[in-house]
Amino acid sequence: xxxxxxxxxxxxxxxxxxxxxxxxxxxxxxxxxxxxxxxxxxxxxxxxxxxxxxxxxxxxxxxxxxxxxxxxxxxxxxxxxxxxxx
Length: 86
What we know:
This protein is mainly α. It is about 65% helix and about 0% strand. The chain is elongated and about 55 Å long. It is built from 4 helices and no strands. Helix 1 (about 1-15) runs antiparallel to helix 2.
């Protein structure tokens, strides 16, 4: 779901990009920029935000899996993963 949210919203934003969007010459972050894509920058921005929020529970999953091996390492790993996502 997170991958679809990210790629799908980015594709929609690029389709609504003013002018031609050449993948070889432009960076994808231009599709999210209100300066370069004033009409549809919010679509990929919402998609990226949704994909990050959908990925947050994965940090808890990683922590639960590692807890069997080392409890203190599991807490550190889960927190570091969540901070890295945010």
